[in-house]
Amino acid sequence: MRLDQLPLRQTAQIAEIDWNMLAPNEARRLRELGFGEGVAVEVRHHSGLFRTGPIACKVGRMTVALRRSHAAAILVTISAIAS
């Protein structure tokens, strides 16, 4: 499942990031923010009518706003244990 498809308040783990879908500066910024394989992530808020705007994700202890195109490059697996 892609991160932009993850239901609200559902904890998941980043399985893979398609770095080729991102510009080099965008990929670098996601890495700096802590996005990487194995990291726990949770969608906290969908912005915009019809889910077309950015989404807010919890990564570690911080909340980060992501463009939907960036979230679509991130594949997640739903965690077996709820946190």
What would you note in describing this structure?
With 83 residues, the protein is α+β, with helices and mostly antiparallel strands. It is built from 2 helices and 5 strands, in the order E-H-E-E-E-H-E. The protein has helices at 24-32, 68-71, and strands spanning 11-17, 40-46, 55-59, 62-66, 74-78. It has a 5-stranded antiparallel β-sheet with strand order 4-3-2-1-5. The two termini are 19 Å apart. The model has no long low-confidence stretch (mean pLDDT 90). Pfam families: FeoA. GO terms for molecular function: transition metal ion binding. Residues 1-78 form the Ferrous iron transporter FeoA-like domain.
Average pLDDT rating:
90
Biggest sheet character: 5 strands, antiparallel
Tell me roughly what share of residues is in helical segments.
10-25%
Total strands: the figure is 5
How is the topology of this model organized?
Elements: E1 11-17, H1 24-32, E2 40-46, E3 55-59, E4 62-66, H2 68-71, E5 74-78
Antiparallel strand pairs: 1-2, 1-5, 2-3, 3-4
